Amino acid sequence: MNNKKGFEKNFYIAVIMEFFERGAYYGVLSVLSVYLVLSSADGGLGFSKTQAGTIMGTIQPLLYFLPIIAGAIADRYGYRRILFFAFTCITGGYILTAITESYIPVFASLLLMACGAGFFKPVISGTIAKSTTKENSALGFGIFYWSINLGAFLVPLILVPYLKSFGYNYIFYMAAIAGCILMLINTFLYKEPKSNEEEGTEKKSIGKMLVGIVEVLKDYRFILLIFLYSGFWILYFQMYGTVLWYLNDHVDMTPINNGVNSFLALFTENPSWKFDVEHVTVINAGVIICLQLIVSKLLQKAPALPTMILGIGLGTLGMFVLSLSSSAWIFIIGLVIFTLGEMTTHPKFLSYIGMIAPADKKALYMGYSFLYGVIGSSIGSFLGANLYVKYIDELGKPDVLWIIFTFIGIISIIGLICYNRFIAKKK
Hints:
The chain is mainly α. 78% of the residues lie in helices and 0% in strands. The protein has 16 helices and no strands. α11 (279-298) crosses α13 and α12 packs antiparallel against α16 (398-423). The protein starts with 8 loop residues before the first helix and ends with a helix.
């Protein structure tokens, strides 16, 4: 039975699991696209950017698609069993990525990892839902969201630069060790969650899940919203592809390094901190940790769709700022503005899905809302890689690349404005 004032033990176990899994995942993702394309002399695998885009454009959509079906499978066969399967895939995928160098084996290893991560996502969020009550659910999911960003902040900030100094494969070994820790937690500490009192006891069959697909696809308003919102996520997934390549190839971060080392010199002698690609993830997660509660409070009563449009506008502005200059400070400002857009738009998107979904199908609609990530990551990764090769590698015009993504954001904004005006259900 849930404690209405506090949280049961399984809640804290789930939060710890999320911290380890997301820390490992974002630690890897913070350098993955660069590791794939760096020459072997520089410690990378030497793949082309098009090959790297194919990998990123496959594993990330898989991560967003699998939760749609994995939740129903977990409800039927048990959370602990599915977590065991997920952690086996995650650990095996990271280990195999660390020891393989050829394109197909690396691709297959990352697919295995993505399969495990995709099954993990709905089970762990489902555990949080089953371990909280109406009275403490908001706080519970807030703590859960922070654990994601805390992992995404600390691991790339502290562990990744240290491990990278020995070799990129050590980052994958670190992630595999996290997978082993998760396996032990699942075996000895995690308990199969019981349903909340409000939930029925009937388990969803695979057949019912397929019927749910048809029901959702028939709702054209929902599908159109997902499609329009995906425009923002085409931009978002550049943070793990083209933005990292651009930083590595064209941005001189010396002014940032000098500023940070001047501050660190107050506490230690001869500091040698260096801003590198993994710190893009650190900025994103750090800004969210510091400002998300403030932004959410300010926008608490704001209407959902206009707020989403504002957030996408900020994200689009962040992309435009990148087109202005390759200056280190301009780069940082662009990243921060983009993150403010993410913080503004995504919570309101989740809230809006909850409002427009039929009362008896809210969980179903929330599951299929993950399609924004499937569309955004697949298009974003393939498009980003090809545009980078054409406009930066071949033509030397990075500003054109960021302007193109700016226009994608503008198209998304215009589409949502029209959606809000002509299609959205009026209350």
